[in-house]
Structures are given as C-alpha cells and as structure tokens.
Amino acid sequence: LYILFLLFQILGAVILGFGIWILADKTSFIAVLQMSSPSLKTGAYILVGVGALTMLMGFLGCLGAVNEIRCLLGLYFTCLMVILITQVAAGLVIYFQKETLKGELSRIVGSLIENYDPLNNDERNLQDAWDYVQTQIACCGWTGPKDWENNKILINRSMTAYPCSCFNSSNDFQVDGGFCNLDVPVNSTAMYADSAVHEQGCMDGVEKWLKDNLGVILGVCTGVAVIELLGMILSISLCKNIHSEDYTKVPKS
Fold this sequence. Notes:
The protein is mainly alpha-helical.
C-alpha cells in the first residue's frame, strides 16, 4: 500500500510537470493551441491543480495508513473517486465532441494562417511555433498549401511565395521564419510551384502522429486509471479494517 502511495506522488508530479510544460512550451503544436485558445491554457492550469492535489492525496493517504486514521483514508478515497470520474468524463467529452474540437482547431489555425505576418512582432512567438510545427511535421497549411492563398500578404504577391517552413528540405531553401520566394520559371504551372513545398497538410500530420502513438496514449491512460482504482480499493479496505482510531498517533506541529 505504501508503494501505491509513492506511485501517486510520482503520478502527481508527472501531471503537474505536464501542465507546467504546456504553459511553458513555445515551440510545438501545443504552443500554437495554448497561445490561440484560452480553453487550453485553462486546461493546463487544471492539470497543474490536479497534479498538486494528487501529490497531496498521496501524502494524506500514506499518513492515514501509517497512523490508522479513517477520516484521512476516507478523504483519500473520495478525492481519488472525484479525479477518476473527472478523467472519464473528460475522455468521453473529447471522444463525442471530436468533430467540434476538430472544427475549433481548423478555425484557430485558419485565423493564424490568414493573419501570418513576419513583420508583426506582437505575434512572433505564435508564428514561430507554427513554423516549427510545419518544419517538424513536414507539412504546409492546415489542410494543404492552398490554405496559404487566404493569407493577406501572399494574396497581393500572386502566391509567388510561401512561408520558408513550408519548403521541402530536399530543395535548396533555408528553413526559417518569414516568407521565401518560389523560383518559378516563366510559363510554369501551379503544380510546379506546389511541388517545391510540402503537399501534406498539418491536420493529416497531426492525425497520423496521434494514430501512431495511440497505443502509448491509451496505455498511459489505462495505467493511471488502474493505479487510481487500486488506490481506492486498498484505501477503503484498510479503512474498514480500522475499528477504532487513535488520534494520539497524529503528528502534532
């Protein structure tokens, strides 16, 4: 049982660290969402709170077990149950609202692409994060390169340029922030121009990453749920076996 309480301390630290990472990260797709959507930032603060609460519950559960205090074990059981129910509810919401969430992502990224301006220093962190995403996933736009036809600057340049992060690494373009001009021969077709940049949209790249790592994600979620269930079962069993409480064992400050 004490090992289980220690696992909860570690689990709480991991959740807390994950929430802090979301808030601090500036160079990934998470950063794009975090800077564009207040809801994700709120979710990160919730993760920080849940992580801190999990660590506290692990300490209280261990204290209750060592000193055989039923009220602490009962509080530990109740908090675990609330956390588990919240996690299951969040998973169900994400599953059944995935099309709505997908539409929200499209709106966020679409707005980013439309207003992308290398000279706008106010949005520099957000735009750098999106350039990083396009470079790492080897993608261009959300659904494809044609998304950049909605950019306010590129419309006036007759689509003779794309963000440098869109270009294939096999070409001799330096991947950097801002726009890079297409070296398009006279009388060339748009297909030639498109071949210089990644044809895959970042939506497909993100979905592919999720599918490739789905087993790991589900495994981690299942492992966390199993640990929580074991904690609930063991804490309530220990609570039932304590027939009388001796509060003199409680450490006094």
